[in-house]
Amino acid sequence: MVGAPPPPDRVIRFDDGSYWAFPAMRWTVSNFRQLMPTVNVSRGLGPVAALPSALRDDLDAVRFTPLNSDRPMTWRESLDANYTDGIVVLHRGRIVYERYFGVLKPEGQHGAMSVTKTFVGTLAAMLVAEGVLEAGQRVDHYVPELAASAFGNATVRQVMDMTTGIKFSENYADPNAEVWAHGAAGNPLPKPKDYTGPRSYYEFLQTVKPEGVHGEAFHYRTANTDALGWILARVTGKSVAQLLSERIWSPMGAEQDAYMSVDSIGMPFAGGGLSTGLRDLARFGEMIRNNGVFNGRQIVPAIAVGDIRRGGSTADFAKAGYAQLPGWSYRSMWWVTHNAHGAFAARGVHGQTVYVDPKAEMVIARFASHPVAGNAAIDPTSLPAYHALARHLLAAPR
Question: Above pLDDT 70, what percent of the chain?
Answer without folding.
Answer: 100
